[in-house]
Amino acid sequence: MKKRIVIVGMGFGGIRTARILAGEGHDVVLVDRNNYHLFQPLLYQVATAGLEQESIAHSVRAMARNWPGTRFHLAEVTGVDFSARAIRTDTGDIDFDYLVIGAGSVTNFFGLDSVEHNSFDLKELSDAEKLRNHILTAFERAVIEPDPARKRALMTFVIVGGGPTGVEFAGALIELVHFVLAKDYPELSIHAARVVLVEATDKLLASMPEKQSMYTLRKLRSMSVEVLLNARVVDAGPERVILHDDSVIPAHTLFWSAGVKAAAIAATLDIPPKAGGRIPVEPDLTLPGHPEIYIIGDMAYLEQEGSALPMIAPVAMQMGSYAGKSILAKEGGLTLPPFRYHDKGSMATIGRNAAVATAFGMNFRGYLAWLVWLLLHLYYLIGFRNRIVVMLNWVWYYWFHERQVRLITKRNPAPS
Amino acid sequence: MKKRIVIVGMGFGGIRTARILAGEGHDVVLVDRNNYHLFQPLLYQVATAGLEQESIAHSVRAMARNWPGTRFHLAEVTGVDFSARAIRTDTGDIDFDYLVIGAGSVTNFFGLDSVEHNSFDLKELSDAEKLRNHILTAFERAVIEPDPARKRALMTFVIVGGGPTGVEFAGALIELVHFVLAKDYPELSIHAARVVLVEATDKLLASMPEKQSMYTLRKLRSMSVEVLLNARVVDAGPERVILHDDSVIPAHTLFWSAGVKAAAIAATLDIPPKAGGRIPVEPDLTLPGHPEIYIIGDMAYLEQEGSALPMIAPVAMQMGSYAGKSILAKEGGLTLPPFRYHDKGSMATIGRNAAVATAFGMNFRGYLAWLVWLLLHLYYLIGFRNRIVVMLNWVWYYWFHERQVRLITKRNPAPS
């Protein structure tokens, strides 16, 4: 029998659920507050002037064309009406027989209000554009700043969080400064520019093996990123960042990638959340007591072998596919075995010819890992034309040490 | 002797002045409130989801690298201090020995406040993004609008001005609707969408020969653009447009391309302006009484053979080159003959395989004119990588009837 299946969130999880359910005779409604799927792992390259923002986004309607039985509904979801089996949105309610929620995560500032107010993060396309505008504007302001101390603070960038995003952003930023901006700003002594990476634990890329962390640390330091381990940012203003030991870094740019938490909708589900606001789910990813509602991706809290699954794209993708298959199985009178995450490895790029990757129990570093990183990101990027544009930008940058998108599209941007 | 030459405005005129003056031993300061040169003729393609906004902009610092003796200063110019020989900007004053002002033009609403408040125009990159967001959002709202009349109004687009911008935008918009959005929105009866082009005179592309105007009119009508000649928009609200004869077009989108006027800085120059706020200049493009100050491009009012030179890119380019050469001549103790505009022709594209071009006393129409239009626009676009990205988008659209950039990057955008 034809069922109405509503999928909230067109991220890595949601689009895979949609793909599985397409053409199976159901009425599938795709809901997102944006009309595009965003390839978040490359946001940092938009922020560092390496990619056009449009090249990492792909129209949901363009995808839905190839998914029979699906349709798109642009809306912000505000809550779920469990008894009426409907979601509430800013453009009306939508009934469902099955509901799949994969609304992702937002930045977690852990209650540090001054940091939240004075820092940038990278979750949305607009965040990346805002950060790029801010970085380039800082250099423009440095050119005309007479005071040497303020000039240096304008050229100082503090990055919090030594996970993949922090590492990749730090590497891309220092390369932007040394390879590109050094030529753009002959009037600045570019080696006064500082990129400071602050990590609370004693190693970078904590989820990776020790060797990979060490390589990453050495490599970033050789690129002259200042890496501070066992350090925490506790306070911030527009022109300075304060660490746990009261030391002050004069800096006009603070980038926060030290944590995420479940999207706001999780709090409306009337389930006591776990760490990071995540919703504990049954082994088949359904909401306890609601076998017709699935929670996937960053929002879902599920333990496997004693620890919670990480909030990363591969988990979301596998959960998305599982949710789709599970619904089809139920409709066919079957039950799938519980969800199991297959860890295919993880990777992070540091800079030109330098990345770390861990897969199949092996560790790759340097050029090979970097090449694999490039190819995998191109593979997972949605939209063939997007792949060409991204590849073009990468080749251009590799050959000519040029990043073309160094535009300030809005002047005087302020942190959110 | 080394002179300080300040060039205000990095449009078509200013960059040509800079190119001429580069490497001639002077201190050339390039001033713009944006850090990029914008290729305005393709803004309408950004607004109709055909091009990434970044692909029609090029960093001024990237250009200045190749221009010895030039440097860039990001600033909004607020006025000229004639006695101190300095320009005033929001980031400090800059002294000059010579000044070249090519700050371009802004949209002229001719005092129609309700129209200005409820319409879109295309002068800046952000205008194009805002208009694209608005057009795509209108279709999303149409999907969920229950009232048939409002649904139709959401899908109705009124364009004012039958000049090249109005014609090109109308053609690109109707193609977006018929070729692309028709596939994106199977739930809408897309032929209810209306594109209405309103022109005050009795012909389109008034500056072109009669045959070209007639072809353009026939072609647009065959593409189902509703062309209203001898019609004027006199009033507008968020959901309707009112014509001179009190007839009402229910429409959520009004695009105004019926006139331009000199940029605001022209009014600060203490010279009684001509029509459109333009500054009357001497035959050598200098400000009367100020042989060290040049006015170029849309801001300059100069008659040739009894009529004022048009406010178009080719005039700005030739004026820009002339101003540079004139300064070099003066420094060499010479004087150039007065400025003379050489009209190499004009062109406008209407749609797929259809354009009009007039050059060397000949008129071209259709496929050949269209091909020449494409090639010339690629040629004048700055930045080799931009050319590749733009060409890629054009080829993609031509082959696959696909425009990839149909993203709503900000929800609920309102007219400026």
Key descriptive features of the protein:
alpha/beta; FAD/NAD(P)-binding domain; 416 residues; 4-stranded parallel sheet; globular; 2 domains; homodimer; 6-stranded mixed sheet; 27 strands
> Number of helix segments of chain A?
11
Number of strands of chain A: 27
Name the overall outline of chain A: globular
Describe the main β-sheet of chain A briefly: 6 strands, mixed
- The Rg value of chain A, from CA coordinates, equals 22 Å
Q: Unreliable runs of chain A, pLDDT <50, ≥5 residues?
A: none
Strand content of chain A: 25-35%
**What is the terminal separation of chain A in angstroms?**
47 Å
Tell me the number of structural domains of chain A.
2
Please write the CATH class name of the largest domain in chain A: Alpha Beta
User: What's the CATH topology label of the largest domain in chain A?
Assistant: FAD/NAD(P)-binding domain
Please render the helix and strand layout as text.
2 copies of one chain form a homodimer.
Chain A: E1 4-8, H1 12-21, E2 27-32, E3 36-38, H2 43-47, E4 57-59, H3 60-64, E5 70-74, E6 77-81, E7 86-89, E8 92-95, E9 98-101, E10 105-107, H4 113-118, H5 125-144, H6 148-154, E11 156-160, H7 164-184, E12 194-198, H8 210-222, E13 226-228, E14 233-237, E15 240-243, E16 248-250, E17 253-256, E18 260-262, E19 279-280, E20 286-287, E21 290-295, E22 300-301, E23 303-304, E24 307-308, H9 313-331, E25 346-351, E26 354-359, E27 362-366, H10 367-380, H11 384-400
Parallel strand pairs in A: 1-2, 1-9, 2-5, 9-21, 11-12, 11-17, 12-13, 19-22
Antiparallel strand pairs in A: 3-4, 6-7, 7-8, 10-18, 14-15, 15-16, 20-21, 23-24, 25-26, 26-27
